[in-house]
Write a structure and sequence with these properties.
It is found in: Cell membrane. With 478 residues, this protein is α+β, with helices and mostly antiparallel strands. Helices cover 63% and strands 10% of the residues. The chain has a 4-stranded antiparallel beta sheet.
Length: 478
């Protein structure tokens, strides 16, 4: 006993020494999750009011859009896949929790055993009678039933840390689901506004087709009176044909945009109900950006990266505990007999109780490799967290600048459209009085149509920028 106790003592000491020598953390892994962020966004006031706190039903007022989002939150396949990942993570927690609880079970068995007479066991059976005065039955029967349990004492927290890491990963999958919702809401809103913009562009094209067709008839009448040549007629015809071709291109874009929305809401192609209001009259929501530190609370992807980092740190602790000795305890109690009639007699009672202490000595390289892998994954998680937070800040900063510049662009484009609309009227008047060339009329009409398209595209960019900054701030998932 003295010799065995010394062996166990040396094993424990050796394991501790080896673990200390193997557990040096890289500097980057010692960084804290509380990464410093700038006090305020460039070009924005330092105010804690944040539009990300608004629920998406309060942020988007269009009833057609909110119905689409509601449908998508039920039917979208990517979101439903993510929900199953959450279920998988929940089951992983149960698995990890079960590892540090005692394993207990019931066992029953029956069998026969025939040994050769000229063997050690056969000779013993020949000389020892189980029942005095009676020969041993041949073959020997064996019946048993009882309960057993075994348990690894989690002295160093290896199993508890593994369970806590599984909890952190479960929470990260919840944040991953929230991030999917945020992106889904933003993508549907952007596609919806694109659909409204295409509707407006199609209406403008159809109006221009009517205007240009009337102009073509006027040119034909002027040709009959020899005021213009056949060249002018052909140029006006080409202009009308070009504008007509535009409407089919826009109609195709409408179909594709509708089907993109249908895919997001998880349904087969069909007409997408939408508002008939003038797209140019839409007013983008005023978005309060708050302060950068609120990204840590509002952005699901930032919280997901933070939880993954916490899980990686717990994985390192769990891997580090592999270097330490482990204590296992096993026990059992039951009955065993050669005859079923003797099975529940006191003489058939048996029980066992054992404990073992083991420390790694030979396979240290495998344990060190596992520990180094856990460390490397922790470093990856640190960099991923820092990258995610930096990306979140830059996304918001870009959209703040974008919203400001788009407002200036829209104002100038509106003035350009007004000036070109007046130019179209003036050129038509001058052309009728033969004071302007037909090319001036054509060029003016073309420029006016392009400017209207550009104005709509600028309005679409404004609406998209509003959606994108709401998403970048972390809104849409709550």
């Amino acid at each position: 006993m003295m010799f065995k106790s010394r062996i166990y003592k040396y094993i424990v000491i050796t394991g501790l020494i080896l673990s200390v020598s193997a557990c040096k953390l890289p500097d980057v892994a010692k960084r804290t999750e509380n990464t410093n962020t700038p006090a305020a966004y460039s070009g924005a006031t330092q105010d804690t009011v944040n539009s990300a706190k608004l629920k998406w039903k309060d942020f988007f007022k269009d009833p057609y859009l909110t119905r689409l989002i509601d449908t998508a939150l039920v039917n979208n396949q990517e979101l439903n896949i993510t929900l199953q990942e959450i279920q998988i993570s929940q089951n992983e927690i149960r698995i990890r929790k079960g590892e540090y609880l005692p394993f207990a079970g019931l066992r029953a068995g029956a069998g026969v055993d025939k040994v050769g007479r000229f063997t050690r066991n056969g000779a013993l059976e020949e000389n020892i009678n189980i029942v005095p005065g009676k020969e041993n039955p041949e073959p020997l029967q064996d019946y048993s039933f009882g309960a057993y349990a075994n348990w690894e004492a989690d002295i160093w927290g290896k199993l508890h840390n593994a369970k806590r890491a599984a909890i952190q990963r479960y929470l990260s999958t919840v944040e991953g689901k929230n991030f999917v919702i945020t992106n889904l809401v933003g993508e549907i809103a952007n596609s919806y506004y694109e659909l409204l913009a295409l509707d407006t562009q199609l209406a403008i094209v159809q109006q221009n087709i009517d205007i240009q067709t009337n102009a073509l008839e006027i040119v034909r009448l002027q040709k009959q009176s020899a005021r213009v040549t056949e060249l002018a007629v052909r140029r006006f015809e080409a202009q009308v044909l070009n504008t007509r071709s535009l409407q089919y291109n826009i109609q195709q874009q409408i179909v594709e945009t509708e089907n993109r929305i249908n895919f997001l809401v998880g349904r087969y192609p069909q007409h997408v109900e939408r508002s008939n209001d003038d797209f140019n009259m839409l007013v983008p929501n005023t978005v309060a950006t708050g302060i950068p530190s609120q990204l840590l609370e509002n952005r699901p992807d930032v919280k997901q990266a933070e939880l993954k980092l916490a899980a990686a740190k717990l994985d390192v602790k769990s891997a580090k505990a592999q270097f330490y000795p482990s204590l296992g305890i096993s026990a059992g109690i039951g009955y065993q007999a050669l005859d079923p009639t003797h099975l529940i007699k006191p003489e058939s009672l048996l029980y066992t109780l054992a404990g073992d202490l083991a420390a790694p000595l030979i396979n240290r390289n495998a344990i060190k490799a596992s520990y180094k892998n856990a460390n490397a994954q922790q470093v990856q998680a640190v960099y991923d967290y820092e990258r995610t937070l930096l990306n979140a800040y830059i996304e918001v900063a870009n959209q703040i600048s974008n919203i400001s510049n788009l407002q200036q662009t829209y104002n100038l484009k509106s003035q350009q459209v007004n000036a070109l609309n007046e130019s179209v009227d003036i050129s038509n008047t001058l052309f009728r009085s033969a004071r302007a060339d037909y090319m001036e009329v054509l060029l003016t009409q073309r420029d006016a149509l392009e400017s209207k398209f550009e104005l709509i595209e600028t309005k679409l960019k404004q609406m998209n920028a509003t959606v994108n900054i709401y998403r970048a701030l972390g809104g849409g998932w709550n």
